[in-house]
Design a protein that fits this description.
Rossmann fold, alpha/beta, 382 residues, seven-stranded parallel beta sheet, globular
Length: 382
């Protein structure tokens, strides 16, 4: 990296969205970005292909704070973008804010808020008690003690403190912003933002063979897969030519095993389970074969998948509690409720040509180059 001024410093982790995020910001703000990528093993990144603007930091290195502060000083950074807030990014950000007057942009994911609300404010995410994530009490205590010794704050308190210092909540769904504001007395303002690279290029994929019913998008326990299984047991999928498709390559692997076992017990060899991470091109082709998709989350999640499916012509069902259902209805998408609309085989018919064209037009109204240009041009306050 050279020594000229770079206004934007980013905190990221090794994630399937990271490459797209870097490409997006470099495209609109060339030469103005520094990317700090935190990883437990800096020699073996799973998803990220760092460029020369990236600095990879080991999560266990006690000198990271010094390195980050020195980097900000060196490049005169004025904007901090936090891509998903976790406890480690929170303590690093708080360290920055004790020394610098810097604007904080939260690139919101979803789980960073919903996980905190579920843990501390009993926000309902799981249909079954046993699906709630639990770390051994000793592990949580050790982590809290480490944070207190190293950073002078517990992990959860660090996140809460950072919430109060956020200047801009950056996301496409205003309903999640309202949820944030309802639960915390914060100063943050809303800015429209989306990782458009995560949406792929669905318009380039056409497929007339729609043989799948997609069950969620990952092995996340918030998908409440067994609730969906209970609903689908009352419908003869084989009779209407539908094969259950379960992407389980990403998320909680113990939960993935339990879900696989349950669906195989009910559907035998007719269920198709995706256990390996595949390229976005391969995954999008698989999505193009989906006639119907059901998502069991009680929270907003899997939006990239859902947007692509709607653009590709799939019939999509969401839970009533999922605020994405409201977001889509407010924008005139044809979208369905699991509780209200999924009762029999007839509810899983393919959308007709007019319905497919309508959803595609809605998609293109909100997700297009002109919209992305406007979004990025108005993202950073000067």
């Amino acid at each position: 990296m050279d020594n000229h001024i770079r206004k934007n410093i980013h905190f990221l982790h090794d994630d399937k969205f990271t490459d797209g995020a870097i490409e997006q910001f470099d495209s609109y703000f060339p030469g103005q970005n520094l990317y700090i990528i935190f990883a437990s093993d800096i020699s073996r990144l799973r998803y990220t292909h760092p460029n020369t603007n990236c600095l990879i930091l080991n999560l266990r290195n006690r000198k990271n704070t010094e390195k980050i502060l020195a980097t900000i000083t060196q490049y005169s950074c004025t904007n901090l973008f936090i891509h998903y807030i976790d406890s480690y990014k929170a303590v690093m950000a708080l360290s920055v804010l004790t020394k610098y007057d810097i604007k904080v942009y939260w690139i919101f994911y979803g789980g960073d808020l919903y996980g905190y609300l579920q843990k501390h404010k009993d926000y309902p995410l799981f249909d079954r008690e046993e699906d709630q994530p639990r770390k051994p009490l000793g592990a949580n205590l050790i982590k809290s003690l480490k944070y207190l010794i190293w950073f002078g704050v517990t992990p959860d308190h660090a996140i809460q403190k950072l919430f109060l210092k956020i200047n801009y909540f950056c996301f496409w769904n205003e309903n999640d912003f309202y949820l944030f504001k309802d639960n915390f007395e914060v100063k943050a303002a809303f800015k429209s933002f989306i990782y458009y690279k995560a949406l792929g290029v669905a318009s380039e994929i056409t497929n007339t063979e729609r043989k799948y019913i997609l069950i969620n998008h990952s092995a996340s326990p918030t998908g409440n897969h067994l609730t969906l299984l209970t609903t689908l047991r009352n419908i003869d999928l084989k009779k209407i030519g539908l094969t259950p498709l379960l992407p389980l390559s990403y998320g909680d692997m113990e939960y993935a095993h339990n879900v696989s076992t349950a669906f195989q017990q009910n559907y035998g060899d007719s269920v198709e389970i995706m256990k390996e991470f595949v390229s976005i091109e391969t995954y999008q082709y698989k999505l193009s074969q989906v006639r119907c998709a059901v998502f069991g989350m009680r929270r907003q999640e899997a939006a990239g998948n859902i947007f692509q499916l709607l653009n590709m012509g799939a019939r999509v069902f969401l839970r009533n509690e999922n605020n994405l259902l409201k977001w889509l209805k407010d924008r005139d998408f044809i979208i369905f409720s699991i509780e209200n609309d999924l009762k029999s085989e007839e509810n899983l018919d393919q959308l007709n040509d007019d319905e497919i064209a309508h959803n595609r037009a809605c998609y293109q109204r909100y997700f297009n180059l002109s919209a992305y240009n406007h979004m990025m041009e108005h993202l950073i306050e000067t």
